[in-house]
Design a protein that fits this description.
This protein is α/β, with parallel strands linked by helices. It has one domain (about 5-350): Aldolase class I (TIM Barrel, Alpha-Beta Barrel). It is built from 14 helices and twelve strands. The strands form two sheets. Strands 1-2-3-4-5-6-7-8-10-9 form a ten-stranded mixed β-sheet, with helices on both faces. Strands 11-12 form a two-stranded antiparallel ribbon. The radius of gyration is 19 Å and the shape is globular.
C-alpha cells in the first residue's frame, strides 16, 4: 500500500474534511447537492440534465491516487500520486458495502434537521446512483469492471469520470451509464501546465483516450472545467478534440474556488455563469452536430448535446433509470433491452460519419 494512505495524519485530515475511508484505497463523501436535496433546497445539475435524484446519489472513488496534480483540484498536494497501482486490491463487494454504510452514517445527522424533507430522506436510504468522481482516478482500480457490474446488479446507475491518462483502461471498461473525460485544456502545452501530469507521454495518452471514447457504445460526455484567464482560450481546438471523442454530451463548467485549489488559484479565476455560457457558445460555433440544451445557474454549468437527442422540438437527455439493470449489455444478460440495441446501432452509425 502507498505510504501516504497508511499514514494516520493523512487519514485524520480526510476525516476532518468529511471523507470516510472504505477499505484501504476507496473513499466516500456526501455531495453538497445531496445535502441540498435533503434540506429541500434543490438538486444538482445532473438532476436537471439527466434526471438523477441527488438525494439518492453516492459520491465515492475506488482510488484516492491520481497521475495528475491539476491546479483546479480541491485535493491537497499531499494526496497520493502514482502512475501505477501499488495497493492491495480490495474486494469490490466489500467496497460497495462499506461505501454505502459510510454514506448512510454520514447522513444520519440530517434526521434531526428542522427543515428536513422527510420524503427525500426516506428515499436517500436507497442508493440509486453512484458518481465515481470524488477524488483520485477511479478507473485504475484493477477490479473496476467487477464493481461496475455489481453496482448494475443492485440497480445502481454508474457515472465515472477519468482524466484520460489510462486509454487502455477506457478501452477495456465495461459499459456504464455515463462515462466522462475531463478535458482541461485545448493544447499540449496548456494541458501540461494545468494538469501537471506524471506521464511524459500525457498528450498521446489523452488523445488515444479520446479515440477509444469515440468507439464506445454507451453514453459519453466531455467535461470542460473553465478556469478564467487560464484555459478559456482556443475554442476551435476544444471543438476539434471533442469531435475526435464524438461524445453524446459536453458539460462546460466553471472552476469553483474551493478546497486547496485556493492555494494555487485566485478567486478571479472563477468565471461567472454568463462567462461560461459565452465560452460554450464559442466552442459550439466550431461543432457540427451539437446544440446548447440546458444550463444550471447555481453550478455555473452548460450542457451541449448531439442534435439527435432533439425530437419534435424537445430535448430528451434524461435517462430511463427504471431500466438500469437492463440498460447496458453484460456477459450474463446480453442485449435484452430494445433501447440498448437502438443505442448501440445509432452509436455505430455516428462513428461511421
Amino acid at each position: 500500500m502507498l505510504k501516504q494512505l497508511s499514514d494516520k495524519k493523512y487519514k485524520d485530515t480526510l476525516e476532518k474534511q468529511q471523507y470516510r475511508i472504505a477499505g484501504s484505497h476507496s473513499a466516500v463523501k456526501i455531495c453538497g447537492w445531496t445535502k441540498s436535496m435533503l434540506r429541500d433546497e434543490g438538486g444538482c445539475y445532473k438532476l436537471k440534465f439527466y434526471g438523477i435524484m441527488s438525494n439518492q446519489c453516492l459520491q465515492m472513488t475506488t482510488s484516492m491516487s491520481c497521475a495528475n496534480r491539476c491546479e483546479f483540484c480541491w485535493r491537497g498536494y499531499k494526496a497520493p500520486v502514482s502512475k501505477d497501482w501499488k495497493w492491495a486490491v480490495d474486494d469490490p463487494e466489500e467496497i460497495i458495502e462499506q461505501s454505502i454504510a459510510a454514506h448512510h452514517k454520514l447522513l444520519i445527522g440530517f434526521k434531526g434537521f428542522e427543515r428536513l424533507n422527510k420524503k427525500a430522506y426516506e428515499q436517500s436510504l436507497e442508493v440509486k446512483h453512484v458518481a465515481l468522481s470524488l477524488t483520485g482516478e477511479p478507473i485504475i482500480y484493477p477490479k473496476i469492471n467487477e464493481i461496475i457490474d455489481l453496482f448494475h446488479k443492485r440497480g445502481i446507475s454508474t457515472f465515472l469520470v477519468t482524466n484520460a491518462q489510462y486509454p487502455e483502461e477506457i478501452k477495456k471498461l465495461r459499459p456504464i451509464t455515463q462515462l466522462y473525460i475531463s478535458m482541461d485544456a485545448p493544447n499540449k502545452k496548456l494541458l501540461k501546465k494545468i494538469d501537471k501530469p506524471l506521464f511524459k507521454d500525457f498528450w498521446e495518452r489523452f488523445n488515444k483516450s479520446l479515440e477509444y471514447m469515440a468507439k464506445r457504445n454507451d453514453r459519453t460526455c466531455i467535461r470542460i472545467t473553465v478556469i478564467k484567464g487560464k484555459n478559456d482560450v482556443e475554442p476551435e481546438n476544444y471543438a476539434h478534440l471533442i469531435e475526435k471523442a464524438n461524445t453524446y454530451f459536453i458539460e462546460v463548467k466553471a472552476y469553483m474556488h474551493v478546497g486547496e485549489s485556493r492555494e494555487r488559484l485566485k478567486e478571479d479565476n472563477m468565471p461567472t455563469h454568463e462567462e461560461v455560457v459565452e465560452f460554450s457558445k464559442e466552442i459550439n460555433k466550431h461543432l457540427k452536430n451539437y446544440e446548447i440544451v440546458s444550463e444550471h445557474i447555481p453550478s455555473r454549468v452548460v450542457l451541449l448535446a448531439k442534435k439527435k437527442f432533439k425530437k419534435n422540438g424537445k430535448w430528451h437527455t434524461w435517462i430511463n433509470f427504471k431500466d438500469t439493470s437492463k440498460l447496458l449489455p453484460t456477459p450474463t444478460t446480453g442485449l435484452s433491452n430494445k433501447g440498448t440495441k437502438d443505442l448501440i446501432r445509432q452509436r455505430k452509425q455516428d462513428n461511421k460519419k
